[in-house]
């Protein structure tokens, strides 16, 4: 069988959020399919916007030890972190300085862990729910210009207020909550390209699966893209193939459709 290189988004693609426990679960059909893909000689990887440390929480659920993390800036091969690139320093510092000067909450991820560094407690007060998984480090002497490795930026800005901050257009950002947004890498495909370069494998054999807005760039470049049946409309329009929803055996359905398993 001709070897393919599969890259799966996590939330809404590999995993389903349990409405009762609010924990991520993986359909049995998905686990079965991933194992069969490996048995058939295919390469299987995650491709996520999540930070590396956070993405590793899913590894045991799906038994995948190859990952593209941090929106394309992180690479893990055979369980080893090969690369973790920071945001563009000059643009990241400029955003942090301006938004902080305007009195809004700013937090920066400076390490590959759950610490969020802030000059004051504004972001923490604006986003109390984050305290369940984020360790706030308040340091009034924090100097954004001197911090060369900024991996993500968290900002207390509502959706209605975004238009008042034109500097946000200088870097990719995503909104996961009405009260805040994140400056984070959004080119998963650049990470996929580097993985394929490490492996010495042909790009034409890449297959990507996704469901959300942060998969749009990946779908625009991949030779074969598959949208989950629960994907946003934009992604379904871009996809080469739309499978069933994640909780309706979507990954297994697509892989059987193409004869990969």
Task: Summarize the structure in words.
The protein is of the alpha/beta class and 261 residues long. Helices cover 28% and strands 23% of the residues. It contains eight helices and 16 strands. The protein has an eight-stranded mixed β-sheet. Helix 4 links the parallel strand 9 (115-118) and strand 10. The protein is globular and about 60 Å long. The chain starts with a strand and ends with a helix.
Please state the structural category: alpha/beta
User: Low-confidence parts, pLDDT < 50 over ≥5 residues?
Assistant: none
- Rg over C-alpha atoms, rounded to the nearest angstrom: 19 Å
Number of helices: 8
The overall pLDDT, averaged over residues, is 95
- Which bin fits the share of residues in helices? 25-40%
Summarize the structure.
The chain has 261 residues and is an alpha/beta fold. It is 28% helix and 23% strand.
